[in-house]
From TrEMBL:
<dbReference type="GO" id="GO:0005829">
    <property type="term" value="C:cytosol"/>
</dbReference>
<dbReference type="Pfam" id="PF00293">
    <property type="entry name" value="NUDIX"/>
</dbReference>
<comment type="function">
    <text>Acts on ADP-mannose and ADP-glucose as well as ADP-ribose. Prevents glycogen biosynthesis. The reaction catalyzed by this enzyme is a limiting step of the gluconeogenic process.</text>
</comment>
<feature type="domain" description="Nudix hydrolase">
    <location>
        <begin position="45"/>
        <end position="188"/>
    </location>
</feature>
<dbReference type="GO" id="GO:0019144">
    <property type="term" value="F:ADP-sugar diphosphatase activity"/>
</dbReference>
<protein>
    <recommendedName>
        <fullName>ADP-ribose pyrophosphatase</fullName>
        <ecNumber>3.6.1.13</ecNumber>
    </recommendedName>
</protein>
<feature type="short sequence motif" description="Nudix box">
    <location>
        <begin position="87"/>
        <end position="109"/>
    </location>
</feature>
<dbReference type="InterPro" id="IPR004385">
    <property type="entry name" value="NDP_pyrophosphatase"/>
</dbReference>
<feature type="binding site">
    <location>
        <position position="106"/>
    </location>
    <ligand>
        <name>Mg(2+)</name>
    </ligand>
</feature>
<feature type="binding site">
    <location>
        <position position="102"/>
    </location>
    <ligand>
        <name>Mg(2+)</name>
    </ligand>
</feature>
<dbReference type="GO" id="GO:0046872">
    <property type="term" value="F:metal ion binding"/>
</dbReference>
<feature type="binding site">
    <location>
        <position position="154"/>
    </location>
    <ligand>
        <name>Mg(2+)</name>
    </ligand>
</feature>
<dbReference type="GO" id="GO:0047631">
    <property type="term" value="F:ADP-ribose diphosphatase activity"/>
</dbReference>
<dbReference type="InterPro" id="IPR015797">
    <property type="entry name" value="NUDIX_hydrolase-like_dom_sf"/>
</dbReference>
<dbReference type="GO" id="GO:0006753">
    <property type="term" value="P:nucleoside phosphate metabolic process"/>
</dbReference>
<feature type="binding site">
    <location>
        <position position="86"/>
    </location>
    <ligand>
        <name>Mg(2+)</name>
    </ligand>
</feature>
<keyword id="KW-0479">Metal-binding</keyword>
Length: 200
């Protein structure tokens, strides 16, 4: 985090619960070489996130989750969002282990292989969260049903769908969250190569 173009003068906690908010006072270099005045920025602090799109290259199917999301409801979207598998990376965990754990907890399977798609920031102006998306090689036989951790009040419906049906859902605007949109778009562009690699 050392960067001579940035001077952080203070940091204080604005809120700390399941999520945390920090308030920074800082200045940074301008494009003309000068410095900004001291400015204040609120930053939503969040651990890294892993998201996983399961894909069966033999049957050309993917697995989507449906679960309740209060923020979606609050802005007038469907409260039961169509999503891919996702979970928070705890301290000391590596991304691949989290991907495997979340596949087991949220969809009841262990991936045959994982392929990293990308890491991106969903809201770089407000939040420290970085999301890493993986494609998971799955055998879809017998998959589906309701999953999740009871002690976290998770109620997650896992459904196996033909890729073309999932793509139609995206085009119709029924998939509204960035990890699922990015993962499906990536698979649309790379499906032929992935199928070739995983079926040899």
């Amino acid at each position: 985090m050392d960067d001579p173009r940035i001077e952080i003068h203070s940091r204080k906690t604005g809120f700390k619960g399941f999520f945390a908010l920090a308030i920074f006072r800082l200045r940074h270099r301008r494009h003309d070489g000068g410095w900004t005045r001291e400015i204040e920025r609120e930053v939503f602090l969040r651990e890294p996130v892993v998201a996983v799109l399961p894909y069966d290259p033999v049957r050309n199917t993917i697995l989507l989750l449906e679960q309740f999301r209060l923020p979606a409801h609050l802005i007038g979207q469907d409260a039961w969002q169509q999503e891919i598998i996702a979970g928070i990376v705890e301290e000391g965990e590596n991304l691949e282990d989290v991907a495997v754990r979340e596949c087991q907890e949220e969809a009841g399977f262990k991936p045959l292989a994982l392929e990293k798609i990308m890491t991106y920031m969903p809201s770089q102006g407000a939040c420290t969260e970085a999301t890493t998306i993986f494609l998971a090689h799955m055998d879809d036989a017998g998959l589906g049903g309701v999953h999740g951790l009871e002690d976290e009040d998770e109620d997650i419906l896992a459904r196996v769908l033909p890729f073309d049906e999932a793509w139609a859902m995206l085009e119709e605007g029924r998939i509204q969250n960035s990890p699922a949109i990015i993962a499906l778009q990536w698979l649309k562009l790379n499906r032929q190569d992935v199928t070739k690699r995983w079926n040899t």
